[in-house]
Design goal:
Shape: globular
Number of strands: 8
Bound molecules: 1,3-dihydroxyacetonephosphate
Largest sheet: 8 strands, parallel, barrel
Order of helices and strands: EHEHEHEHHEHHHEHHEHEH
Strand order of the largest sheet: 1-2-3-4-5-6-7-8
Structural class: alpha/beta
Distance between the termini: 16 Å
Strand content: 5-15%
Length: about 250
């Protein structure tokens, strides 16, 4: 069956020393605890190798926030999926709305990134979600379905089964506005149904679907109690132990 996952997306926050300090705190906080979810930290690229050396990956898992859509070569400034894997990273966030909005990422490039991540045994945390105008027009279900179809539906069922999805309504990211528990459940069920229609119920039932967007200590329990919400992708609240741990312990 599918896993519960709480993943922190640090975005472009924390220098190396600050990042290592937080990871050390997190590692001690989870030590000796039996958690009902996997805990992942998705750090900036330059922190990955150092964080990897610090963590016990049975307790805290490591992810990146992006990878290149090319294997290797003359692509100045890019970081390949193979490089990420060589640091010990296990996950990579792909298709975050900030990358789509500010760096022009499209389903075409994302499809390449997903394949390269899988080829390097990284688990993509693939983000989907509508903007406010789309939600207000009642188009959220169509938007997320199209995002999944365009970037992921050329995968085999076997490969699709290795992906984690994260529903992140853009209007809820960093705004303090969270989707209600009912809104989250409704669209997560729709996402699972979309996967089932293509790959069958077993693959759909085994796919972890995380919620992201102003998830915090106060709302995580209610969000995670929904049958189709399998954890969270956490931004702001992942930057401090005392705001992140209650979310980890919300299961
Ligand atoms: P916030 O939790 O800061 O709203 O960010 C969510 C997010 O974008 C995680 O990827």
């Amino acid at each position: 069956m599918r896993k519960n996952i709480v993943a922190g997306n640090w975005k472009m926050n924390k220098n190396l020393q600050e990042g290592l300090d937080l990871v050390k705190e997190l590692q001690s906080a989870v030590f000796g605890k039996t958690l009902k979810c996997d805990v992942v930290v998705c750090t900036p690229f330059v922190h990955l190798a150092s964080v990897s050396g610090l963590i016990d990956k049975n307790k805290v898992k490591l992810g990146a926030q992006n990878c290149a859509d090319k294997v290797s070569g003359a692509y100045t400034g890019e970081v390949s999926a193979e490089m990420l894997a060589s640091t010990g990273a296990q996950y990579v966030i792909l298709g975050h709305s900030e990358r789509r909005a500010y760096y022009g990422e499209t389903s075409v490039t994302l499809s390449e990134k997903v394949k390269l991540a899988l080829a390097n045994k990284l688990t993509p945390i693939f983000c989907i979600g509508e903007v406010l105008a789309e939600r207000e027009a009642g188009k959220q279900n169509t938007v997320v379905k199209t995002q999944i179809e365009e970037a992921l539906f050329d995968l085999s069922a076997d490969d699709f089964g290795k992906i984690v999805l994260a529903y992140e309504p853009v209007w809820a990211i960093g705004t303090g506005k969270t989707a209600t528990s009912a809104q989250a459940q409704e669209i997560h069920a729709h996402i699972r149904q979309t996967v089932a229609a293509k790959y069958g119920q077993t693959v759909a039932d085994n796919t972890s679907i995380l919620y992201g967007g102003s998830c915090n200590a106060g709302n995580a329990k209610e969000l995670f109690a929904n049958p189709d919400v399998d954890g969270g992708l956490i931004g702001g609240a992942a930057l401090k132990l005392d705001t992140f741990m209650p979310i980890v312990e919300a299961f």
